[in-house]
Amino acid sequence: MAEAVRHDKTARQLRLLSDALDSGRLGPVRRLVNTLSPAEIGNLLESLPPAKRTVVWGLVDAEDDGEVLVHVGDDVRESLLAEMDPDEIVAAVEDLDIDDLADLVEDLPDTVIDEVLKSMDRENRERLEQVLSYDEDTAGRLMNPDVVTVRADTTVDVVLRYLRLRGELPEHTDHLYVVSRRHQYLGRIALQALLTHEANTPINQLVDDEQPAIGVEESADEVARQFSDHDWISAPVVDDNNILLGRITIDDVVDIIRNQAEHQALGAAGLDEDEDLFSPVPRAWRRRIVWLGINLGTAFLASSVVGQFQGTIDHIVALAVLMPIVAGMGGNAGTQVLALMVRGLALGQVGASNVQTLLWKELRVAAMNGVALGSVVGLATWAWFRDPMLALVIGAAMTLNLLFAASAGVLVPLTLKRMNLDPALAGGVILTTVTDVMGFLAFLGLATIILLG
Amino acid sequence: MAEAVRHDKTARQLRLLSDALDSGRLGPVRRLVNTLSPAEIGNLLESLPPAKRTVVWGLVDAEDDGEVLVHVGDDVRESLLAEMDPDEIVAAVEDLDIDDLADLVEDLPDTVIDEVLKSMDRENRERLEQVLSYDEDTAGRLMNPDVVTVRADTTVDVVLRYLRLRGELPEHTDHLYVVSRRHQYLGRIALQALLTHEANTPINQLVDDEQPAIGVEESADEVARQFSDHDWISAPVVDDNNILLGRITIDDVVDIIRNQAEHQALGAAGLDEDEDLFSPVPRAWRRRIVWLGINLGTAFLASSVVGQFQGTIDHIVALAVLMPIVAGMGGNAGTQVLALMVRGLALGQVGASNVQTLLWKELRVAAMNGVALGSVVGLATWAWFRDPMLALVIGAAMTLNLLFAASAGVLVPLTLKRMNLDPALAGGVILTTVTDVMGFLAFLGLATIILLG
């Protein structure tokens, strides 16, 4: 089952490491840590409380420091950088790929950035500055300028000789790019094609010019979509004049996809996907209090609705007992619709062309839920309070609130999106405000009219 | 901003397509659809209501049918298969890769499966049967048996001649695998290495034997973790005797990562990640009513707590107005902790070794929230109801409930995990039950003791 998410290896490493740390013998810890890949070390550091994290970070081989920094979230990265001298940081990051360095550089102290730039040769410095000139979360920022290009008017044999002369290729090179004299992107050649064709085959017979290049200003999400849609391992990045600027590889795309998804899951709880499991208490508190404060405001709004019906509750105290059910069930049902909508919006599957159909579908589902859940709630209320009219009121109020919930579940995320706000962040708070307010209003309002009328 | 998830291209295609469909002229629709990649067509079909989906599906080129079926969720796949004759299905799927076919085959009618098996040659049929013999969501089910192997006791030149003779390589081949006479996995050679080394270089100088192979029974999640940790494009799959069985490629891993993440986001609302945006109303209803029914049960549980305090509420009706605030804020704060824990568990970052530290951190954050939010709620209550003792009661109850919420946020997902239940699915329901029950109990209980005592 996909649900039984087991990461036995990580958990085992963590336990071993924890035992070794507790015993105070750092030799075994060092040996254990340095058998791991940088990504594994990053994952391990994220799962350690600050004190142990500092100890383990000090034991990581200096040559892995840079790659580890690339593989941890922003919060943890900051805590690791805080433990390093400027010299150590410069040594750690100077050998990173340009795209990884660009990702790190804004988290570094200004003095360190100057040192890093000074330690680079002119070509790499210019490349880094070019990458940094693009907005965060665009293709330009994700690309690595280090690409292997060839001309179309040559043969497999010549290219093979060139590659042998050149030596190692950049990581994840699965295609060479064919460019014009002016460095315009013309197409790509699979390494596979070079290996499976005779030496005298003209290169222009092997060029695939059907795959689109990525525009340097396209958003990271659009980049991820294209990689998924075309099953790419790498893709060329071009500017408006079709000049080849660099190359994006699947490893960066996997990070984008993971972040998008974490964003929906954590965003719904008002959290950032870079949140550190062990962030210092004052910082964790500052981040959470904002979202909780907003929720408190909406809770008072819902309470003020209840406040309007104090006279009614004073007459029938059972209403106070039952009202959380009406409001809560609306919230639950609305959250289901919201979750589907947020995913649909993120995948570009929901828009003006199908919102009516969706709303109509969700209203029908809500009506069926209303009949089923309204009946159950009504019967349970009848049995509990021996009052058929109260049962009728709660059943009707529940059905009404489920209809409100379905409408809000469809319309709130769409409206937020149209206002350029993030449905994954603000959707839940607004939705539950609607379902609380409308739930209390429907239930207590109907009770006032029917039971006290 | 990562938040501004824009998929302009998909949305534009959808609008164009929708307009063309509404105009009833199917020629333009057909042309539009068949400029898209199978994944894009799949995405488009998922965003169409059933009637339009049927029309568009009928216009897709028959040769793309199989790939499109691979790229849609289970629900949509079922609706598309329902539109096809057995012959059409056989024609659509018979050219798929073994791993894709294995993924599809269980959704096919039995008669069709027989036909498909009959249409395959013996080698491919045996390969499919082998893949199907492994459990779903294991490496064995994800692998493609089509791999290119070489011996270690040869040279680059010989391998290049072999590859030219062989012709096309399987998709996403970035390494050849070196095997023994008994087909045991010995290591891998990068295509890059073949291209950048002289023809007379012995193969055994190029073999990378440091990368671990994937065990055929490892879970899909473990496979995804290893791909992330090692930045793999493809990886070999071996059995217990280290015999090479096949190869897993990054495109399947991207699907796993996407599913894991959707599972957390949709699972929290009691939904399955394969849920179709436009699933038929009766089916959508049947799926949702179960989760809502469970939530209704827990809502009655919380209400029964309120029911114990009807006498108290009868005396002080303001309690009914304020009690949803105490319960609701506990739910919000607990949900934040839960979301962090569910992600941490999915990444293997949370376990017995750090739960104490985490709980202590979250209790301190909750205490700070309690002081801040408790004061605000207390002051607001004082201003609203002019009752300092009521203000004190709600402030204290709020603080208590935030502490309960933090404890439940840490302990509920861990306990579920230890019971082999999925924290992403059941965590939210149990957490809000705890925060509702404890919130009502703390607030109404303190009120009874202090205000009526």
Word description of this protein:
The structure is a homodimer of 453-residue chains. With 453 residues, the first copy, chain A, is mainly α. Chain A has three domains: 8-142, MgtE N-terminal domain-like (MgtE N-terminal fold); 149-250, CBS-domain (Roll), CATH 3.10.580.10; 281-451, SLC41 divalent cation transporters, integral membrane domain (Tetracycline Repressor, domain 2), CATH 1.10.357. Chain A is built from 21 helices and six strands. Chain A has helices at residues 8-23, 26-33, 38-46, 50-59, 65-70, 74-81, 86-93, 98-105, 110-119, 122-132, 139-142, 156-166, 191-196, 220-230, 250-267, 281-307, 310-315, 318-346, 355-385, 388-418, 423-451; strands at residues 149-150, 175-179, 185-190, 214-215, 234-238, 244-249. In chain A, the strands form two sheets. Chain A has a three-stranded mixed beta sheet with strand order 1-2-3. In chain A, a hairpin with a 5-residue loop joins strand 5 (234-238) and strand 6 (244-249). In chain A, helix 14 packs across helix 15 and helix 20 runs antiparallel to helix 21 (423-451). Chain A starts with 7 loop residues before the first helix and ends with a helix. The model of chain A is unreliable at 1-7 (pLDDT under 50). The interface between A and B is large, with 143 and 144 residues. Chains A, B: Pfam families: CBS, MgtE, MgtE_N. Chains A, B: This is Magnesium transporter MgtE. Chains A, B: Keywords: CBS domain, Cell membrane, Magnesium, Membrane, Metal-binding, Transmembrane, Transmembrane helix, Transport. Chains A, B: InterPro entries: CBS_dom, CBS_dom_sf, Mg_transptr_MgtE_intracell_dom, MgtE_N_sf, MgtE_transporter, SLC41_membr_dom, SLC41_membr_dom_sf. Chains A, B: Belongs to the SLC41A transporter family.
